[in-house]
Amino acid sequence: MHHPDLDAIRTAAARIAPHAHVTPVLRSGSLDRLAGCELFFKSEHLQRIGAFKFRGACNAVMSLDDATAARGVVTQSSGNHGAAIALACRIRGIPATVVVPHSAARIKLAAIRDFGARVVPCEVAQADRTRVTARVLAEQGGELIHPFDDARVIAGQATATLELLQHTPDLDVLVAPVSGGGLLSGTALAGKALRPQIEIVGAEPEGARDAHDSLAQRRLIVDQPADTICDGLRAHLSERTFDIISRHVAAIELASEAQIVAAMRLLWERLKQAVEPSAAVALAAILRAPERFRGRRVGVILSGGNVDLDRLPW
Amino acid sequence: MHHPDLDAIRTAAARIAPHAHVTPVLRSGSLDRLAGCELFFKSEHLQRIGAFKFRGACNAVMSLDDATAARGVVTQSSGNHGAAIALACRIRGIPATVVVPHSAARIKLAAIRDFGARVVPCEVAQADRTRVTARVLAEQGGELIHPFDDARVIAGQATATLELLQHTPDLDVLVAPVSGGGLLSGTALAGKALRPQIEIVGAEPEGARDAHDSLAQRRLIVDQPADTICDGLRAHLSERTFDIISRHVAAIELASEAQIVAAMRLLWERLKQAVEPSAAVALAAILRAPERFRGRRVGVILSGGNVDLDRLPW
């Protein structure tokens, strides 16, 4: 399988540059002391639509030829990718359809609608998402842009790490949440291409540990039910992302629900950043496995900040 | 009265540089559209101790001669200035005593203690704060560093605007919250010195509108009771800050409690920044008086982010 190389990632960066934000890298002395390492938070919750997902969606939508683009884009998403596709299509002036499971966070569903996409509801199970997406494609046509099983999307997500390593070149480790593996794959490809000695670590909720178990058992597990507060981390890997992660990722560290909520609260109180639970899993994993990170310079992808302020988990 | 000039502000910036953060300037397309102007948020909630107050306190503490410093520092504060003095004194290795009213936010009181300062409680009324502070000074000696009625403190607060205008030189307006007036005075002195045509606007809760009324009546009002969620905005001006503000500030715009809470929520949801109510009053005032700001480039000082996540106002 052909994975995006550094050229593809740099092309993606140039393609999205007119539309995406260069997000800041934030630091906190008190979190550094707590974690026993130097933390550099790449703040993708400050990206457009409030999540890194805009990078991959924008790269994919902007790389379509005009004839393909005119037929519109179809995707499935539990939230942030859907909003990202909706915004990228609005910028390009083409129609977007997003298949969204009933379990999606209210605030993310509202964003998809606000950006003018058509929303098609489906059940939570991956099989139903796939079935409904296939039906929509059969009925209306259009280009499928999968939330993570897509080289254009992975190249886009990789641009966050490109920026992070331009800002702070001498990192020892990169930590990113893993769900379908698009962000972690992009992080790994960009990180290893720019700095071969860097260590790549995934962070995953215990309640959705399919990537962890897939890596441990060296086979792709797609039938584990997910049960976690992290509404962005309930997907499982694809063959493509499993292949990238198997090659480049040193470990996937787990965190419990209580550890994720505690880390989220720390990020709000100490870093003053309103991040969503799916973003907090990275810090939770670092605090749970301090020996891996002690004394090192650690880049952390804060993946998103779309959280319902009326339903905070504390 | 002698007020800090540009030289004094630049000296303060150099003095605090080894200790203070250069805070980022954050932007949000959706807030720009909502406000009808271009907003540049100088993010002082990301300053050390989570508030701009560290600038003034650090400048004052670091400018003491060794003999004076050795006798320690005494101050009165409802919170952030107390934590700032405590941290600055810890860095310098000298004792700090902070007189704190019972009404102080729990999280701010904890920070003062965590930084190793002695806490002396007092009643909420300004007269009692002053009385207890005078008693502490009489008993133990030490240097009084007032939270705002102090040229060293004002010069320190002014460094936030120095950085903001270095980052974004072509602003039309600067908006800062006003309580005792240290931040607004510093903002005005730096803003007018660097860019004489800039307009300076204060933002104040309706429930603590003494600065607004002082400006309107051209006399210093110190006997209005304050009733607002903004625990950092309950002080009144001093002769010194009233003089600076009378010379340089175009207007003080008011905001209701509901408008402040709504603006705080917008800053959390759209800018993803966990700011305290006292910081949100600036955006609330902008949204309440859109005609003043329409189409202009507006610098906004987000003054602090110390908020109790268990007591959010929505």
From TrEMBL, chains A, B:
The keyword Glycosyltransferase does not apply. It comes from the Bacteria. InterPro entries: TrpB-like_PALP, TrpB-like_PALP_sf. Residues 17-304 form the Tryptophan synthase beta chain-like PALP domain. It is an enzyme of class 4 (lyase). SUPFAM superfamilies: Tryptophan synthase beta subunit-like PLP-dependent enzymes (SSF53686). GO terms for biological process: D-serine biosynthetic process. The keyword rRNA-binding does not apply. Keywords: Lyase, Pyridoxal phosphate. It holds the Pfam family PALP. Its EC number is 4.3.1.19. One of its GO terms (molecular function) is magnesium ion binding. CDD domains: Thr-dehyd. Its cofactor is pyridoxal 5'-phosphate. Signal peptide: none annotated. Belongs to the serine/threonine dehydratase family. PANTHER family: SERINE / THREONINE RACEMASE FAMILY MEMBER, SERINE RACEMASE. This is Threonine dehydratase. It comes from Chiayiivirga flava. The lineage of its organism: Bacteria, Pseudomonadati, Pseudomonadota, Gammaproteobacteria, Lysobacterales.
